[in-house]
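WARN no homologs supplied; continuing
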Amino acid sequence: MFTNRLDYRQEKPKGALLRGIDPQQEPSVTRISSYLRESIYSLGPLEEEEQRRLADSILGRLSHPKARAEKIPDGIILGASLAQQLDVRIGDTVKVISSEQRMTPIGDVPRVKKLEVIGIFESGISGYDEVLAFADYRLVQKIFRMGKEVSGLGVSIRDPEAASEMASELQQLATGFLSSNWADENKSLFQVMKLEKIGLFLILTLIIVVAAFNIISSLIMLVAEKSKEIAILKSLGATDGSVRRIFVFQGVVIGLTGTVVGVILGLALCWVLGTFNIIDIPPGVYPGGNRIPVLIDWYDVGLTTICSFLICMLVTIYPSSKAARMNPVDPLRYE
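OK structure emitted
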């Protein structure tokens, strides 16, 4: 259930999104277990077994069946940024105000429910951590007088790429309801990423073009410097093809050396950025921490390497052809 409500503690009100979940089923549908913390100040990821025990403890407390009989306050899980803004810790109490009104001797007043903070949710995405709160769906139904109804359902599928198609099918089956998926909700982000990739492609293309012109100019200068040697070789019987192959080989060596060195340095830089916290990213920009996420796509690496090498071979055609067409008489005329 997704309902905008107002949480507050003392004089600090904060709008939030209270989501009702089934603590027993939620871990099998979402990754909530890996995002649960016992403090708003995380010291880093826990070991897998420790994280599992922590999640089981928090989710088990969320659905405590004897809470009412033992007078244990109902629990709530707050987003890390939301908890910081409310200035609450584990064990503190927050009040949830419902927009539903109830009649009292002094008039209509909002429904208020006190809940104990039993866990912290930290996904690393500020859009979630600043507004999300979780409670048992039965408790949420009771707070907002929904009976057995729900205001929404979350669906998890194995193939994330099929989310749009699945949302369309669900929309056709459930008339009167709206369906959305992660691609639609983050459409603007993907558009920005697409433009970013186009920009990176253009920059990479310009770099390769500049490198290609450098190779051409280097070979042309080499042809001019070695004109006498070329003339002597042709005078001794060297064919145009053999002269051409000499300069093609020279260009290939230059291009291959630059390509290999560039790939090695690029991979080394990716490893350094992914391993060491050299560039500190503000919290909430990237999920999972404050380091730049690095993913090496070997297909892209291989394609870029092959294309760079082929371009280096192509740019040797003009200088090598110029050397092959050289008249041996001209360089030796004044010798």
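Residues 2-154 form one domain.
OK
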